[in-house]
Amino acid sequence: MKLFLISLGLLALAFAGIAIKIWGKKGGEFSGTCASQNSNFNESGEPCGFCGKMPEDCENK
Q1: How far apart are CA 1 and CA 10, in angstroms?
Q2: Prediction pTM value
Q3: Of 18, 27, 60, 61, which has the fewest beta carbons less than 10 angstroms from its beta carbon?
Q4: At a CB cut-off of 8 Å and minimum separation 6, what does 58 contact?
Q5: Cβ atoms of 60 and 31 closer than 8 Å
Q6: What's the confidence (pLDDT) of residue 5?
Q7: Residue 49 — φ and ψ, nearest 5°?
Q8: CA 52, CA 58: separation in Å to the nearest integer?
Q9: In whole angstroms, how large is the CA radius of gyration of the chain?
Q10: Phi, psi dihedrals of residue 37, rounded to the nearest 5°
């Protein structure tokens, strides 16, 4: 039971951190959410599966 409560508390803390980050950002968006911006994840130059942009078109490099 103690482990469950500790796990639940840490999970709640993580969600609170994400909520604070979204609330603090202008427009409520995460910056750099596309994996296509990272050359380690996108070696073949494919478009992003989330937004459809090509790696060179992303504004956050």
Answers
A1: 14
A2: 0.45
A3: 27
A4: 34, 36, 37, 48
A5: yes
A6: 97
A7: -75, -15
A8: 10
A9: 17
A10: -75, -20
State how far the Cα of 11 lies from the Cα of 3, in Å rounded to an integer: 12
C-alpha dist (Å) from residue 60 to 2, 4, 14, 31: 42, 39, 24, 7
Please give the full DSSP string across 19-54, using - where no structure is assigned.
HHHHHHSGGG--SS--GGG-TTT-SS-PPPTTT---
Comparing 46 with 60, the larger pLDDT belongs to 46
Look-up of token digits 């639940």: 8
Measured between alpha carbons, how far is residue 45 from residues 6, 15, 19, 50 in Å?
Answer: 42, 33, 32, 14
